[in-house]
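Weekly structure sync, notes
Attendees: PL (lead), two postdocs, one rotation student
Agenda item 3: pending single-chain targets
PL asked that the sequence for the first pending target be pasted directly into the notes so everyone works from the same version. It is reproduced below exactly as submitted, 94 residues in total.
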Amino acid sequence: MAALARSPVRRSRPRLDNRSNDRAEQGARAGAIANFNEVIRLDPRHANTFNSRGVARAGQGERGAATDAVEARRLWPAIADSLTDAFGPGPALP
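Predicted structure, written out during the meeting:
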């Protein structure tokens, strides 16, 4: 049986996600947000990336932070506790 090839998206998303987190930790939020945007383009189902982008956006005072929090909760309801710590209880999900 042939080994399954990993798609370029699967290989590049984790590296870019890690670089985004590193930038955010260094205080380079604008660069981190740009990287998180690309990660989300590659994999729009990754709740942690929405969470991380939301935290970076909140640090910039951007209004889109709450939208990211809602999307992360929708994709992965278990993430709600960490998001509540960062953003407060937020709106109820439908």
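Discussion points:
- Helices lie at 8-25, 29-42, 47-60, 64-75, 80-87.
- Confidence is low (pLDDT under 50) at residues 1-9.
Action: rotation student to compare against the earlier draft before next sync.
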